[in-house]
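Running low. Invent one:
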Amino acid sequence: MNLKFANHTWLPEPTLTFSPEGTSRQARHPLQGLCDNGPYSAGLVPDPIRIATISPGRESEVLYGFMKRLRRKWKPIERKDYLPDWPGFKEVFGLEMQAAGSSCHIKLEDQVDADIQMSSTPHLVLAEHLVRAIQTLSVHRTEFDLVFIYVPVRWHPGFAGGADEDFDLHDHIKAFTAGLGIPVQLVREDGAISYDCQASVMWRIGLAIYAKAGGVPWKLAEADPETAYIGISYSVRGAESDLPRFVTCCSQVFDSDGAGLEFVAYDAREVDLRWDNPFLSQNDMFRVMTRSMDLYRRRHAGRSPKRVMVHKNTEFKRGERDGCMEALRVCDAVDLVQVVEYVNWRGVRIDGKGEAKGRPAAFPVPRGTILPIGDREALLWNHGDAKGVTARSYFQGSRSTPRPLRLVRYAGHGSWDDTAQAILGLSKMNWNNDALYDQLPVTMSYAKVLSRVVKRIPQLRRSPYQFRFFM
């Protein structure tokens, strides 16, 4: 059987901007753009950024030493075709980063190690010690901007719960500190401290520090100011939870430039659970989308967007579609797009135009390639050969045949260009990573994090959460 698809198209690599004024401070490479231009929100973040610390008493100097590394220069020893030299925190962001006052440093006693070793539930013991330390720090909240928590390898038994327990130390801490409005950075001995390529570590941690302190490293340069993007994710609470509702819905609203980092969390009341995938009723979806629009209007002086694109990883059931359209009826256009990450499709790039068969190219399918495969479906190579980022072609990861994303449109019309361009751009808006892009748009990748953490918060509030507390 021969299948014939429509012609494929290619969209150029999205451009980032590092200044709210003019078009001169733009780049396709996020890290090089920071080196050349500084961050988008230059001058708007407190200087210095003050770091509080929590660590085992005998190893507090490890954290102080790590902070000093952030001020030094580092050359990459991996991904040399992409990673620029790390010139130092001040050189990148234009401000200082230093230890907070003496009252903002908690040294845990040796008893913590003994308690972890002797307990049959070491994860609960470790979490309790760290929560108490954070509570102590919270009394001095006005004296610091961010907390570093040093996690040595010997605490490994406390990182996760048993096979039948839904526990993750990172998510547990984030769920607790979000309620206090305290941004936290976990610094693991077997991660950031010992990783071979310290240039990569400094870029990742430096970006995280700046974003968690309220900074905006970059925004999308080419975006429709009248469009908003919404990402939806669901999570199921564990059977051991005594909370009354078992499904949490998270929805985050992004401005046209991808920089809106607030979201709402909602305990769904009417859920249809199919193959472990929850689907909302029309009423619940209407409530979620209405709250999302309220958040957008609050950020934009009461103005509604003309166009809304909604992303989620499962199909939009009829009730969900109707709930979205009812809540977004004031918008001129609504796009409901399912973004499927794991598909069986592959594409091979063939060189030799005009030749009978052609020959396999040295690089994969270009990033930004769109191939319609039906009336309402298309494949988008969000991962592939990136053009215009480095002096030569750049293939992130440099291995395997990249798989495309499958896009299924349940509402919206026209060409795929706008939908695909939005996904390509939003894949470059993760400020907690030093890569050129993520496999998923930030609407989806952040939604995964949010749903994982938010389900551990005992009482969800109606007011919006800031994503920087969950990074």
